[in-house]
Specification:
- The complex is a heterodimer.
- Chain A is α/β, with parallel strands linked by helices.
- Helices cover 37% and strands 22% of the residues of chain A.
- The longest helix of chain A has 18 residues, at 205-222.
- The radius of gyration of chain A is 21 Å and the shape is globular.
- Chain B is of the alpha/beta class.
- Chain B is 28% helix and 23% strand.
- In chain B, the strands form two sheets. Chain B has an eight-stranded mixed beta sheet with strand order 6-7-8-3-9-10-12-11, with helices on both faces. Chain B has a four-stranded antiparallel beta sheet with strand order 2-1-4-5.
- In chain B, strand 1 and strand 2 form a beta hairpin.
- The chains are: A alpha/beta, B alpha/beta.
- The interface between A and B is large, with 47 and 44 residues.
């Protein structure tokens, strides 16, 4: 059919135009636990383009990591189940792919790095062996070749004297160096998408700065899309192009980095920004967000943030789930009163 | 309560070396981890002294030494004119009332089998003179109220509380004996951002209410700045620089302080590219085999022969103004502003 070829051609064109590399649409994930049904992700949609950094910001239990696990296909099932939605990678819904094909994608096309490098690495194999495994498994390289490539990768992530260290075990590396080993593994096959789940949370600030610089540099070189999952508003401000703020399994606000910090449009984002102490300001008042994040097994009715919200009105906040309204290009807020929040009308 | 000039705790030349041993039957010492190596500072009444540094710099060991959980290799710490390390057992027990600790991890620092009443009331068992037996429950309830917990929850167990609430329980326990000094060892670093602010505000409010002095140990420089009147920056067992918060954050003279400040991300995207970027190479050396002379010299861009030969003393250097004069342990101390005004 000629229409088919036309479609394919136009797809190519759109891809050059910066069509999203990854598109998550209305994703739902729940955990069936003994305490009941925990709704961890409740209709999350976001997209990442090649070369772009999307920061997913949220506190513990917001569903930011679970979303990433669902994208990667490494969700613990059971108890976790993807119950709805689509994850399109280069236009193809990968949730519908057989496990075998997803496994081929993992590592080669999309890769992930985790917070705790020590427990993510196998303690009984050398780091060279573990990095080389990527080449052996995915590309069928010999041991010898894969070791040479492992040394190359270690050089690329700037591990000093890679040749000597390729036979060392994970415990012989410092925290920052271990995270570099993880990064070397994840970018070994030039993935188009890298998901970094709190990559620097366990590291000291000076080392964190080194690792974030390295990630930015690798991204510039390879043009990969990066999803940075973090709770650190400072790190996000330094590197993100776009930001998605999550709360109780939903995206409550999306915006370009500058807009989000300058003019937040969701009460949670606004409160979060007001609650962090800053290095460059002394004596500022830090505003407290009262109350606690909700339990996922017992989400509040309506807007999940309403029990802690200053802008709350019983009607509609307690009864209606606010949709993520897009009110500007690249901006959206899931608050019934986003306009008031944006305008800074204080209540 | 505003900080005063009265010194409540005077720490002098504190040293703690942990012996490294080898062999099981024939144990021999093959070296020492120099966790704390000559730390001196004074804590004033009503003041918060921040102690910052990266992992392995010895800041938590300082806390353990002052709490009596470890024995110092040498050094003194004077409280009310007495050296707390040389007191006899009875005097030490009395003194314990005055210095209390709030720990980092609210999940592992509370006994899961004890109720809140037991946890917060336990200090009274050891120091019965503070609260006679009949009156204890009321006292515990008062304490819970003070830290913002519901006094009705006195019979609950730690797992029934969230992380932030557990940290409040830990704070209530530290307050029970009405101490003068509270050592806070990373009290908010295990908490979520929105909860961090709650606990920080509580600590400030309690300080005003009870005139407490805090030794506030943390790795987060923003948190330390927010709470501290003075700040000491530690690197590999020694204090690199100490001064008022404005002196340290806005007029730093030690290269390590400058690098540290430069590495902290600021939550403001408009600052991108506007900040002075200093990136340190490599990692912190092992405290079992620290560099000679200045311990920072292996990562320092200013390092010269003198730095390897001579240990730089912590004295006032590079004084540019009377207001911001402070001590720095660098031979080539020089003010460099990192955070734009």
């Amino acid at each position: 059919m000629s229409a088919g070829t036309e479609n394919a051609a136009s797809f190519e064109l759109v891809a050059d135009d910066g069509a999203p590399l990854l598109e998550v649409e209305d994703l739902h994930v729940e955990f069936r636990t003994r305490e009941g049904l925990a709704k961890a992700v409740n209709g999350v949609s976001y997209s990442v383009r090649a070369g772009e950094t999307l920061a997913v910001l949220g506190e513990s239990g917001s569903g930011k990591s679970v979303t990433a696990q669902a994208i990667m296909g490494i969700l613990d099932t059971p108890p976790g189940f993807v119950t709805g939605g689509a994850v399109r990678f280069r236009g193809e819904d990968i949730l519908k792919l057989p496990e075998e094909r997803r496994r081929a994608l993992r590592g080669a096309s999309m890769a992930m790095i985790f917070q705790d490098a020590l427990s993510s690495l196998n303690p009984v194999f050398t780091v060279g062996w573990q990095i080389g495994e990527m080449f052996r498994v995915h590309q069928g390289m010999s041991r010898k070749e894969s070791k040479l490539r492992a040394i190359e990768m270690m050089d690329r992530v700037r591990i000093p004297s890679a040749k000597q260290r390729v036979n060392d075990y994970p415990h012989q590396f410092s925290g920052g160096m271990r995270q570099r080993v993880m990064i070397a593994m994840s970018i070994a096959l030039n993935p188009a998408l890298l998901i970094a789940d709190e990559p620097t949370t366990a590291l000291d600030v000076t080392v964190q700065a080194q690792v974030m610089d390295l990630l930015a540099e690798l991204q510039r070189e390879s043009g990969m899309g990066l999803i940075l999952i973090t709770h650190d508003l400072g790190v996000v401000a330094d590197v993100a192009d776009r930001i998605a703020v999550m709360y109780a399994g939903r995206i409550v606000e999306t915006a370009d980095a500058r807009d989000l910090y300058a003019k937040p449009a969701h009460p949670y984002t606004k409160a979060l920004l007001g609650s962090i102490p800053r290095l460059d300001a002394k004596g500022q008042d830090i505003a407290v967000i009262g109350g606690l994040p909700p339990t996922l097994t017992k989400l509040p009715s309506g807007c999940s943030f309403h029990p802690r919200c200053r802008y709350m009105r019983p009607e509609p906040c307690q009864t209606e789930v606010p949709p993520l309204v897009s009110f500007e290009a690249n901006r959206g807020s899931a608050c019934h009163f986003w306009q008031e929040v944006l305008d800074g009308t204080d209540r | 309560m505003a900080p005063t000039d009265e010194v409540v705790l005077d720490v002098r030349d504190l040293v703690k070396h942990f012996a490294l041993t080898q062999g099981v039957v024939l144990r021999r010492t093959i070296g020492a981890v120099q966790a704390v190596d000559g730390v001196s500072f004074q804590l004033h009444r009503g003041e918060t002294l921040g102690l910052v540094g990266e992992s392995g710099c010895g800041k938590s060991t300082v806390a353990k030494l002052l709490m009596g959980l470890e024995k110092p290799t040498s050094g003194q710490a004077f409280y009310n004119g007495q050296d707390i390390f040389t007191l006899d057992a009875g005097a030490k027990r009395k003194l314990r009332r005055q210095i209390q600790l709030v720990m980092q991890d609210p999940y592992s620092s509370l006994n899961p089998r004890m109720t809140v009443a037991d946890i917060v009331g336990e200090p009274f068992e050891i120091h019965p003179e503070v609260a006679p037996k009949g009156d204890r429950e009321g006292k515990v309830k008062d304490l819970l109220d003070v830290v913002g917990l519901n006094p009705e929850h006195i019979n609950r167990y730690p797992h029934q509380f969230s992380g932030g609430q557990r940290q409040r329980i830990g704070i209530a326990r530290a307050l029970a004996l009405r101490p003068e000094i509270i050592i806070c060892d990373e009290p908010v670093s295990a908490l979520d951002v929105s909860i961090q602010a709650q606990v920080m505000n509580l600590l400030e409010q309690l300080q005003d209410e009870f005139g407490l002095s805090y030794l506030f140990i943390a790795h987060d420089l923003s948190v330390v700045r927010h709470l501290s009147d003075r700040v000491a920056v530690m690197y590999l067992g020694r204090i690199a620089e100490i001064g008022t918060d404005v002196a340290i954050y806005e007029h730093p003279t030690h290269p390590y302080t400058q690098a540290l400040l430069s590495a902290v991300p600021v939550p403001d995207p408009t600052m991108r590219g506007r900040r002075d970027v200093i990136r340190l190479e490599g990692d912190v050396p092992s405290p079992a085999d620290p560099p000679s002379g200045c311990r920072f010299r292996t990562r320092c861009w200013k390092a010269q022969q003198k730095c390897a030969d001579e240990v730089p003393e912590l004295v006032e250097r590079a004084v540019t103004s009377e207001e911001f004069r402070h001590a720095s342990a660098c031979h080539f101390a020089e003010e460099r502003r990192i955070i734009p005004a």
